[in-house]
């Protein structure tokens, strides 16, 4: 059974997290500041239809889902998260905050159905990924800001096999009654281009906005931008608001032209 910790991320907000053993920071507070404090995912993409559908891919412990449900109580959310420990926290937070019309899919995104080996980071569950080599490059960068011993502790990991599916398969199950997807948010720690390849041609016109964090962007960014532009989106890429120098991430914003 997954052990969850109830932590305060703000004066008036608590949430569950599976994170343990991080000597440097509270990951839940870091995520809260990114989503609630800086509105990193949504601020450039409003207004959205308040009764529409949002896909939260890489839902983590559910703070973005909570954020959009607080702003738009009638919105429907598909929350996709592959890591079992994190899914337990996601479901606990949905119950804790009484969220309704949220469908959880305990699986990852890919261009075809199957299973994949992921890597769970107990001290930083938000770093969990199927692309271990990318994440370990970040460990080397963080070691220059902290000590190598701290970086090693924060970036310790364990392998786990999880199911993966194309997003379009999930949409066909969960969103048949919705014509449009108001926002597709993707933050999946390295698999962004593959996730886009899992969207069928007839589903692309339904997507009105995309926000995604692209990891290893020097290699992946061009492919992601070209894909989105080919599907009728105007795109903009920018660094995250706050990031350690040497971390190669970009935030991509895309709005249907």
In brief:
It contains 8 helices and 12 strands.
Any overview of this molecule?
- The protein has 257 residues and is an alpha/beta fold.
- It contains eight helices and twelve strands.
- The radius of gyration is 17 Å and the shape is globular.
List keywords for this structure.
257 residues; alpha/beta; 3-stranded mixed sheet; 8 helices; 31% helix; globular
Secondary structure elements and pairings:
Blueprint: E1 5-10, E2 13-17, H1 27-37, E3 53-57, H2 63-71, E4 76-80, H3 84-96, E5 102-105, E6 108-109, E7 114-120, H4 132-142, H5 148-154, E8 158-165, H6 167-174, E9 183-186, H7 192-197, E10 209-215, H8 217-230, E11 233-238, E12 249-256
How much of the sequence is in beta strands? 25-35%
State the share of residues found in helices, binned by percent: 25-40%
Oligomer: single chain
Write the element-wise H/E pattern from the N-terminal end onward: EEHEHEHEEEHHEHEHEHEE
State the total count of DSSP E strands.
Answer: 12
CA-atom Rg in angstroms = 17 Å
- Shape field: globular
From the helix content, strand content and strand pairing, which structural class follows?
alpha/beta
**How does the major sheet shape up?**
7 strands, mixed
Distance between the termini: 47 Å
Work out the helix count.
8
Give the integer mean of the pLDDT values: 89
Unreliable stretches: none
Sheet with the most strands: spatial strand order: 5-4-3-9-10-12-11
